[in-house]
């Protein structure tokens, strides 16, 4: 049997993400429509009930974080580009690679099936805190729906662990001759660090889920106190533990997971900025170090999600310090990006614009991180829309901008066709406007006190409605902006479809890139010529007129094609 | 209309609700300081980015990493350290020590989807509760043990009624799942976790009616798990308490 080629595997992953992002977007728009017009009836369905709203929240978060932001950058582009970028013609374990991709697809199908089991999808959010997630008594969707959800996440975790091992082995073992660690593009360092984190984090998540399944079906009490009374029924289990154990295990996974989603994008941003600025990445070695440092510190900060969860207040102080510390390597990255483009008069191509957008969104979302890292301030902000704004800017939007950048940048390499630049620029302009217009105001509704995961913001007797009603005009603005942001993707879809129907036209290496994937024979499946790396990436002449690519032996330097 | 006072207090520009607690003033000041700094840095970063794109190309001069990377990084380190230390002082003041011994004691219990508030009554001691005895329709949602004489005078209320300007020590509990006890206008938030108790203390300063919200996803009725905190002038509070104690005594 012929083993699936790694680029086919990569495209499979991308296809999974495309399905997931379409679905996740629809779910998010339904939430916004319901929040702004609670009496609105979804055609063919009717009113959106509170438990259905929470099912939307849970599934939107799970689908987007796992199946879009983890799958597409790490596994999708990891397979499409990574081997060529290190000068390899294969992944270390091709069969495992294909199996991981199919398992991820099955995991998505299983996850979506949760909508169709009796009582529907789970309602406990992507963090699934017990006891809410430990017993069907706790609410609709917490029975079969929760089991299906947990099964899907276990499958996803197995696939991600396998894929992480594959990525690590590939980078360690299959680098071309001359591709030393210091010559690796920063994208590879991003994939490498994210793979390390995947292996560490997903194995802990799997263990936690197995324990939770035991609590659900075998009457253990890993995450339950001795006595727990839900819905008038005393849970019949043995053991006396605490739900806080789940929070520790979950966030030990959860925080590294959000970095898995962004590290490849950070690496790509560095490389694309340097590519179009026709310069070396500023402080290259420091960028390698900060990538690894972010990965390392990322496993020491999980308690910042638990400042008011019932930890000892001294623990809060300790996690505040480690969290503040991680802001420093993140800032070092931003400084390097600014210095790389400073007075470079870069070509503002579509991939460059999305990389600049990534910087902008990363700064906007990142600056609220150190605010949330201060326990006394998090006491006010925790679980409000301020946090929702933070992570949608830094993770969701920056992540999506990274993916758009990757798509526009590598499309000519993979498909030998170039996406339309004018359409791409329209797509960029509308998307960055929509992103800020949607997520900046969420800081304000959060500061006004709006909690996340509220199915309804008014109509409850009491002072809560008076408090939350102050946000109504902003709510409407956010809903319209979210609709706008979704529509802003139409030029992109049109661009891809239109280009797919054109005959192949793209020139070789249209961006004058210097990394190995653009070498003329890099994508050939079997070639007698092994790939060789002669130097580090981004070697442009001072006047930006010529460059020497990683694959070129010393003599020749290529003039610009323009 | 933006007026200077409201910007400084953060209500108009940043949409913060009014603050009615003693510790909230310094918390707000620190929060606003953080927000303005973040906004300034956001502006600065975009200014550098856009200017860097706009001005004409300069051949890559080997500027030392020190100026562009390590100096700004050192400045940010100092800034973050300054903010973290200020925040730590406030956190320590609020959390490192318990409430004053003279603080008023109220127990808060969360359950799907209601809050109950228990006062210890004349004997200043809470009666024992047993989860197995909890029965809301029968009028004993907290499961107060009738055999424990300390419990007979306990007052259970669905509103949190407090006197202004007296410190309160809240004991937080949950019966079923994790709930989040939050009072935005008191700048207060702490989770109630089943199987354990948490304490939080604060001093309300301004009489009024305030929203208590659940801020930890707890099930389908999460959004309506709201209650009212009523802060009264001390005399009015004393009158309210006397009435409730008399009712409890008559039981
Ligand atoms: C400057 C560095 C960062 C700092 C200091 C920081 C700090 C924090 C803190 C303290 C929280 C907890 C807020 C709360 O729940 O009350 C938080 C939440 C979150 N952060 Fe960050 N963050 C940073 C960067 C990032 C990055 C790079 C990502 C992802 C790419 C990210 C994604 C998230 C997510 C998803 C949550 C919310 C999780 C949830 O509750 O569902 N953050 N962040
Ligand atoms: Cu985190």
Strand order in the largest sheet of chain A: 5-6-7
Structural class of chain A: mainly alpha
Could you tell me the CATH topology label of the largest domain in chain B: Immunoglobulin-like
The count of DSSP E runs of length 2 or more, i.e. the number of strands of chain B, is: 10
End-to-end distance of chain B, in Å? Answer: 54 Å
**What count of domains describes the coordinates of chain A?**
1
Major sheet strand order of chain B: 3-2-1-5-8
Question: Any idea what the radius of gyration of chain A is?
Answer: 24 Å
The dominant shape of chain B is elongated
Looking at this structure, what is the CATH superfamily of the largest domain in chain B?
Cupredoxins -  blue copper proteins
CATH superfamily annotation of chain A: Cytochrome c oxidase-like, subunit I domain
Silhouette of chain A: globular
- Write down the Rg of chain B: 24 Å
């Amino acid at each position: 049997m012929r083993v699936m080629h790694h680029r086919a595997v990569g495209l499979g992953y991308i296809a999974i993400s495309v399905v997931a992002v379409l679905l996740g977007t629809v779910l998010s728009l339904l939430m916004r429509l319901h929040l702004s017009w609670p009496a609105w009836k979804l055609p063919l369905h009717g009113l959106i009930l509170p438990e259905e709203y929470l099912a939307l929240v849970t599934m939107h978060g799970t689908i987007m974080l796992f199946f879009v932001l983890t799958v597409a950058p790490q596994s999708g582009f990891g397979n499409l580009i990574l081997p060529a970028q290190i000068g390899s013609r294969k992944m270390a374990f091709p069969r495992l690679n294909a199996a991981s991709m199919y398992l991820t697809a099955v995991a998505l199908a299983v996850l979506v099936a949760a909508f169709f089991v009796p009582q529907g999808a789970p309602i406990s959010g992507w963090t699934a805190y017990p006891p809410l997630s430990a017993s069907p008594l706790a609410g609709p969707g917490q029975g079969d729906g929760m089991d299906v959800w947990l099964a899907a996440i276990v499958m996803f975790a197995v696939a991600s662990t396998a894929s992480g091992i594959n990525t690590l082995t590939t980078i360690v073992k299959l680098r071309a001759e001359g591709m030393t660690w210091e010559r690796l593009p920063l994208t590879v360092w991003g994939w490498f660090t994210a793979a390390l984190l995947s292996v560490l984090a997903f194995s802990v998540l799997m263990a936690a889920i197995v324990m939770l399944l035991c609590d659900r079906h075998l009457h253990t009490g890993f995450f339950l106190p001795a006595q727990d009374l839900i819905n008038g029924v005393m849970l019949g289990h043995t053991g006396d533990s605490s739900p806080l154990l789940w929070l520790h295990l979950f966030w030990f996974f959860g925080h590294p997971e959000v970095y898995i989603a962004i590290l490849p994008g950070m690496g790509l941003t560095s490389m694309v900025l340097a590519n179009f600025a026709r310069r070396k990445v500023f402080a290259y070695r420091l960028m390698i170090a900060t990538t690894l440092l972010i990965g390392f510190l990322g496993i020491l900060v999980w308690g910042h999600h638990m400042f008011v969860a019932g930890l000892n207040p001294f623990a809060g102080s300790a996690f505040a310090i480690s969290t503040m510390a991680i802001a420093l390597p993140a800032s070092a990255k931003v400084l390097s990006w600014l210095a790389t483009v400073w007075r470079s008069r870069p070509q503002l191509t579509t991939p460059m614009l999305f990389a600049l957008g990534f910087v902008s969104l990363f700064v906007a979302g990142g600056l609220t991180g150190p605010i949330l890292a201060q326990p006394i301030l998090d006491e006010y902000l925790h679980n409000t829309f301020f946090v929702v704004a933070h992570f949608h800017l830094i993770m969701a939007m920056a992540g999506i901008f990274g993916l758009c950048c990757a798509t526009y940048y590598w499309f000519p390499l993979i498909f030998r066709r170039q996406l339309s630049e004018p359409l791409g620029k329209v797509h960029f302009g509308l998307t960055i406007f929509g992103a800020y217009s949607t997520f900046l105001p969420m800081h304000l509704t959060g500061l006004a006190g709006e909690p996340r995961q509220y199915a309804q913001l008014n109509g409850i007797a009491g002072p809560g409605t008076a408090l939350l009603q102050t946000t109504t005009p902003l709510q409407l603005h956010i809903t319209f902006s979210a609709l706008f942001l979704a529509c802003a993707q139409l030029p992109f879809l049109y661009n891809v479809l239109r280009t797919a129907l054109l005959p192949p036209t793209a020139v070789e290496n249209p961006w004058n890139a210097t990394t190995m994937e653009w070498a003329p024979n890099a994508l050939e499946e079997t070639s007698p010529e092994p790939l060789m790396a002669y130097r580090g990436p981004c070697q442009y002449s001072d006047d930006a007129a010529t460059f020497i690519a990683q694959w070129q032996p010393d003599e020749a330097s290529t003039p610009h094609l323009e | 209309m933006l007026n200077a006072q409201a910007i400084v207090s953060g209500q108009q520009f940043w949409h913060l609700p009014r603050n009615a607690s003693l510790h909230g003033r310094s918390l707000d000041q620190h929060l606003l300081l953080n927000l303005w700094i973040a906004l300034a840095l956001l502006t600065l970063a975009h200014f550098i980015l856009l200017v860097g794109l706009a001005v004409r190309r300069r051949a890559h001069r080997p500027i030392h990493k020190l100026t562009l990377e390590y100096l700004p990084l050192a400045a940010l380190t100092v800034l973050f350290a300054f903010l973290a230390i200020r925040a730590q002082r406030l956190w320590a003041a609020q959390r490192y020590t318990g409430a004053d011994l003279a603080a008023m004691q109220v127990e808060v219990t969360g359950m799907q989807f209601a809050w109950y508030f228990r006062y210890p009554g004349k004997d200043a001691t809470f009666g024992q509760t047993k989860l197995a005895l909890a029965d809301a329709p029968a009028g004993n949602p907290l499961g107060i043990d009738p055999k424990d004489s300390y419990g007979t005078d306990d007052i259970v209320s669905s509103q949190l009624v407090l006197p202004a300007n007296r410190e309160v020590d809240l004991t937080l509990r949950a019966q079923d799942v994790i709930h989040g006890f939050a009072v935005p206008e008191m700048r207060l938030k702490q989770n109630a976790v089943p199987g354990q108790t948490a304490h939080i203390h604060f001093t309300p300063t301004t009489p009024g009616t305030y929203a208590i919200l659940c801020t930890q996803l707890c099930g389908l009725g999460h959004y309506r798990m709201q209650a009212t905190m009523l802060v009264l002038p001390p005399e009015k509070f004393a009158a309210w308490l006397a009435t409730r104690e008399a009712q409890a005594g008559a039981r």
